Amino acid sequence: MPQAILVINPNSTEAVTRAIDAAVEPLRLPGGPPITALTLPEGPPGIESQGDADGVIMPLLRLIREREREAAAFVIACFSDPGLHAAREATEKPVLGIAECGILWALTLGHRFGVIAILARSVPRHLRYIAAMGVKDRLAADLPIELGVAALADERATLRRLIEVGRALRDRHGADVLVLGCAGMARYRGALEEAVCLPVVEPTQAAVAMALGRVRLGWPSRPGD
Questions:
Q1: How many domains does the structure of the chain reveal?
Q2: Mean pLDDT of 200-215
Q3: Sheet holding 200-201: strands in order across?
Q4: Which of 39-53, 127-141, 166-180 has the lowest mean pLDDT?
Q5: What span, in angstroms and rounded, lies between the C-alpha atoms of 169 and 38?
Q6: Torsion of CA 118, 189, 156, 53, to 10 degrees
Q7: Model confidence at 220, in pLDDT bands (50, 70, 90)?
Q8: Domain contains 28
Q9: Which end of the chain is less packed: N or C, by CB atoms within 10 Å?
């Protein structure tokens, strides 16, 4: 069986994993590599705080080590990119985080990107990461919809809030491209993009697309290798 791009949802909510699996369907191409979405059973129902993000690092690293032989690459499908750099030390395979990839993808689509967070307490975590990436001057704003991961299953309420916050990022903060700040928002990208008339980056799609390119082109597994 060919090695697969393994997309790991670090929370334990299977509905989020199913949404991730559906979002990456357009990237399943003839000739592969296969793309497989996995759930981290030890994860919390949603990663909504720094503590949640830190708490999944060790089980995430164990899963990566256990599945390394069958993997062509790994994608960490949480916008906190928990354990990203430790994971890159734990495996010879490429490891991509959806926040890093989603933001980098957004920079190719517009001048100022806006991030849509799930909760207000997620925003400081995002801002620290964006500053560490060195792209804070390109950030328009990071605004929450104030719905937890479990609440994202309510399609009507979630899309309404996404549109409200997306328009605020566009009209009040000058964003010309939006980044969805949670893998659980994946199913709403198309409808949001149509409503706000801006490019919308679904970060798991961005990360898997980058992983696909890395695998097909045989680029080094680790940055700097």
A1: 2
A2: 96
A3: 139-144, 113-117, 177-180, 200-201
A4: 39-53
A5: 32
A6: -20
A7: low
A8: yes
A9: N
Are residues 147 and 194 part of one domain? Answer: yes
- Torsion, Cα 34 62 69 3, to 10 degrees, reads 10
Tell whether 224 is covered by a domain: no
Q: Are residues 74 and 157 in the same domain?
A: no
pLDDT tens digits, residue range 82-121?
999 999 999 999 999 999 999 999 999 999 999 999 999 9
CB of 149 closer than 8 Å to CB of 184: yes
Same domain for 169 and 89: no
The secondary structure of residue 104, as a DSSP letter, is H
Among residues of the chain, what percentage have pLDDT more than 70? 97
Domain hosting residue 156, numbered range:
100-202
Beta bridge partners of 6: 36, 74
Q: What is the pLDDT of residue 46?
A: 85
CA distance 59 to 37: 16
In this predicted model, which residue has the larger pLDDT, 223 or 70?
A: 70
* Eight-class DSSP state of 139: E
